[in-house]
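The aim of this short unit is practical: by the end, you should be able to scan a pair of folded records and say something sensible about each. We start with the first protein, listed as its amino acid sequence and then its structure tokens.
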Amino acid sequence: MTMTLNDWTVTEIEVLQEKLYRRSVAPGMDIYVLPKAGYQKKYAAFSTRFGSIDNKFQLDGSDETIAVPEGMAHFLEHKLFEDERGNVSDRFAALGASSNAFTTFTHTTYLFSTTANFDESLALLLDFVQEPYFTAETVSKEQGIIGQEIRMYDDHPQWRVFFNLLEALYHAHPVRCDIAGTVESIARITPELLYRCYHKFYHPSNMALFVVGDLAPDRVGRQVEENLGRRNYRPLGRIKRLSPPEPETVARRRITQELVVSEPIFNLGFKDPAVINLDGDGLLRREIAMELLLEIVFGNSEPLFNDLYRDGLIDDHFDAGYTAEKSYGYTLIGGETRDPEQLYKRVMAGIAKVKKEGFTTEQFERHRRNQLGGYMRRFNSLEFIANNFLSYLFRDTELFRYPAILQRIGKEEVAALLDENLSPERHAVSIILPKK
């Protein structure tokens, strides 16, 4: 049930028996407040729809195509934490708050958690994200720091096996590129380019704020409205993100790399080109259905997992997951293994067996119940609520719709994804082998 209270739209979240407050403040930013009575900790996340794949775009009313180097969103995230007074994290610490930030393929989030001084911490969060400070000297310094980070991740086995897989799955889509960029790409970043990108993507109408804890929505709303109101924002217009054409086929069938590891690491991926035809709720529905399917095939209560575990081909960290975004989607299956070739054959054979024999209604309903239970358990984490709400929001859907959509998904819909989304024609393999 949804109602209007003062300037807020209030939605009853039945599964949590709580209320979500939403309010839009000029110049078009949405604020979300989820009061949690009795909680000592409070958490805030301030996000922009600017991620690593947003490296080519246009603005409404302009024919100019703006292209930025790979790693721009991540570089900008790092630079905002430093201003004329030094590192912002030190000021959060002085308030007793813990701060952080992260950049994904699709968005960047700045956050803090605290048990005291929430108003002061929220003011600091709003201020530093909206007050960029870039100089040639500080940009050059950051290029050295991030360059070292990139070189470190070049030798990180889990990082490399993942991005090697994306490189194999995708021909041209920027999701195949490291979120941090390359040493060469970040060398092209300048203060002028940072400011240009900042003013396009860090406009409040391209951002959202989510706070959760024992908080009064009106007090949060007034603070945010006053903060934004003194900044004289002009209308932004729509940002048109541009991506190169991406074939449905995979770019390469296999990538193998040698690194310093004790055991090989195996990742199997299936490309899902159908996501580009789905809207927000359609993406969420596909994600839920695929999560169900992967649990039915690879869950640790199912025969395939137990056979592979018994034969020493996988350990407890073997996992299968699915990602659905507006312009790309993929399934990822894998973990450490003593024999990646044998694991590959067994996994492909296991998928083929389920395709041939199907699965029972009992399996389907059991995993649906487990999936709902897992969803509910994660709501003990304020971080999970805020970060995931914003992630789903930027996909034009809502985290709290999950249970209702889950209940509407039928066995036949999930079974159809066996052929549609686990197609041998659209799979690729990434393997990290011990260096000889």
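Turning to the second protein, read its sequence before its tokens, just as you did above.
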Amino acid sequence: MRDLPLALSEGTVRALLALIVGVIGLPLLLFSKTLGLTDAIAGYVNGIVTGSFSFYLGTRSTGADEQIARRATEQ
């Protein structure tokens, strides 16, 4: 565990960043008309939310193979 960033398990930092973006970005996107945000700002928020979730889910789908290979080489 000491070799990992911030001494956290793998994927924790990535998951926290995706959670923060989701908790802040999704309400901004849903209530953009109420908050008076322009369409350009809503588009930027949409791109950030979509990009962060797709990156997180994309790395999670390929992460299993890397973990298996890493554990095999460690043993």
